[in-house]
Amino acid sequence: MKKLENGKSTTFEVLRLAGQAGDAQAQLAETPEEVIAAWEHQVRNCTGLVTEMRRRLEVGRASQLDVLQAEAECAAAEIKLLRAKRAFQKTP
Questions:
Q1: What is the pTM of this model?
Q2: Are the beta carbons of 10 and 56 closer than 8 angstroms?
């Protein structure tokens, strides 16, 4: 995997930026449904990235650390999605 000047992998930077984009999208949402949709979108993106990182690991183009970082970012997005759903859940 290519390295950036500061020594962090490009995968780490992609994950960081994707997380920030998900946060921004959720913050700009105007309705509870839009917030939940934003986090669902982020989870789908992360899941795809995890799959891609696993493929790259199999062919030697990514490290186990890259896969773990992608999985951690995906887990964080899933937690945010669950929190949003709980926060907007209607109470009887």
A1: 0.78
A2: no
